[in-house]
Input
Amino acid sequence: MSVNTKDIVYHRPRLLTDNNMHYCPGCSHAAIHKILADVLSDMNLADNVIGIGSVGCSVFIYNYIDIDWIEAAHGRAPAVATAVSRLNPQKLVFTYQGDGDMASIGTTEIIHAANRGENITVIFINNSVYGMTGGQMAPTTPLGMKTVTCPDGRNVEQNGYPLPITDLLTRLPGTCFVSREAVTTYKHVLHAKKALRKAFQNTLEKRGTSVVEFVATCCSGWKMSPVEANEWLNTRMKQMKMGRLK
Amino acid sequence: MESEVRLMKGNEALAHAAIRYGVDAYFGYPITPQSEIIETLMAQRPWQSTGMTVMQVESEVSAIHMVYGAAATGKRAMTSSSGPGISLMQGGISYLCGANLPCLIVNVMRGGPGLGTIQPSQADYYQAVKGGGHGDYKLFTLAPSSVQEMADFVSVAFDWAFRNCNPAMILADGTIGQMMEKVVLPPARPRLTDDEIAHKYPWAIDGARHSRIGSNRIASLELDAAVMEQRNCERQHKYELAEQNDARAEATLTADAEVLIVAFGSAARICAKAVDLARAEGLKLGLLRPITLWPFPSAYLREAAEHARGILCVELNAGQMIDDVRIAVESRILVEHYGRLGGAVFTPTEIVSAAKNIFKL
Amino acid sequence: MTTEILIAGFGGQGVLSLGKILAHAAVMEGREVSWLPSYGPEQRGGTCNVTVVISDERISSPIVDSYDIVITLNQQSLSKFEQRVKPRGILIFDRYGMVDLPKRTDINMYAISAVETAHAEDVDKMLSMVVAGALLSISPIVKPESLLAALQSVLPAHKHDLLPTNERAFNLGAQCVVAKEH
Output
């Protein structure tokens, strides 16, 4: 049975490849990839974009979104993006980084790239743990949360406070747009798409650094089912300022 | 800009040569004894003339990864530093090799280890030629011994790097970087346009997908061991060809040398004078100067040492190049080391005395 | 012919500049040159020195054991480098504040009063040019006109109004050679 084109209300984003994603069930990466592919398609950027991948679960993003990719070393994506953007100013350049990558080992690079106001978009996936290496504590892990490297829950004496990296970035004069998004509900997905679109638009218009944080789930790291993980994140989000931060 | 005779420091000459060669980008962080490189680039403001990007960045770590990013898009990118900064770059250098990207890294060596001293040294030989970072890789390593070579090797290094899709290094030291000599700067040539890059380097990322050959990505990750081994074998094959074809050395009075001195960079300059002094005394000393440290000029060395009864390897370190010298002559000739460490520098007569003492001349 | 020269003194006395101007002058005369400073924090005070080699041939080593000409502008440098003058070589030392005078008898020694002269004539900042004048009156390693032309090329254009004063300082040099010791 063929479907009448005018009846199509949803289709797979053109830029998503046919490769099976390696992400765990319930992982936010898959949904965020889809949004990213959609927005790039919608904005007609497929042949004018360079993505900078990073180290973490999303390291294979180049297998899933069919654009030009450069794989950066752990934490260094904003440095790589700086050079790519400076030398190819007509291109949309963005990074896709996790919280272990950006908020821990790559703190220097993100702070300085954002402070210089590099014309890049930073897509920051914050799931509060190190997913790829097996659910260890991240700088963003909330107090009290248990992980394999803080088995009694994160505590201030031993581990210090969670690093509010996105809030820090709002304070830098080089950032033009900072937003905190999620993909736990359809409403959030729609909002996130708008934020991403806005960020890319800023980058194309050379307004400075745009940051879109996605608070994300990690079912494996959190040892929760997808439903539990979504619910837990939705509860946590009530204590966070969501949406546009700058 | 036409070719031009100038009196300048090695560091300055290298910066001018980079602009004239049409380098697209320099990323660096100041450190003695090479800060004149970035200072000269900034003073010349090449972004106004050639369009070259010059950035002082937050760390050597960022600098090398910016080089990586620029190189991934087919641009001629470079950085420079001294030992402490070059150590910080090692991870990035390994990634550049892993992703088969060309670039130029300049190390103006100072005494170490640690913060060490700012005085000249050659103690980063192992780091440069034996792989300072992880994995099986090599850097095409040039050792300039004059201000002229600081300028000339910019093009030699970049040409090799782009021919072989692998980083190249200029391994100088504080003496070569800080001294002034007469230098003929090469005529300027324009930077490549984006179209020329796309045509010459089909592997380069340009964000337009149509330029890709098989892949639209620059990456070094591969979890399939068989594929990873194959990539490594291809890399090693490239290195074997370089070892056969790309080694360079300069021989001085080696034909009848009884004792052959082997020295590179600034040490070779001091040894050249030592050879003159020795010859004036009737002592048959000769000098072989490796110009490429990798590939090591083993064949040149064997030829130069044909009639020698001993080899004196003179280095501003505790004995690093001596390993390659011994391998080259397969231990058939006595090879001894003479060196000064941690920023101390030998004088020509000191080397003549060392040769006399060690080989009972 | 090759002339190996060392100039040593306090940072700020123009030691490196004097070496640089000599080097430029030699290049203008079509000769080979190497200029090697003691670099780093020494430039910011303390003692510093520079080795200048001028030759008609390709220069082998920029680092040498002993010198044809040593010029010292402070006591530390005089004490340190007196022994590095080649036999029959030249030692030129500024006598201002010297307590331990050089003792060698196998070299040509000249005491100069460049520091006092520069101060008396209000050209303290051009001490290096006074010393240059003294040096060339003792040993004409480059032509005075080359030296002055070199100064013009080394000085940035916005400082070219200082050229006449520099020339005056240079001309004072010859008169401040106070004694040939041996």
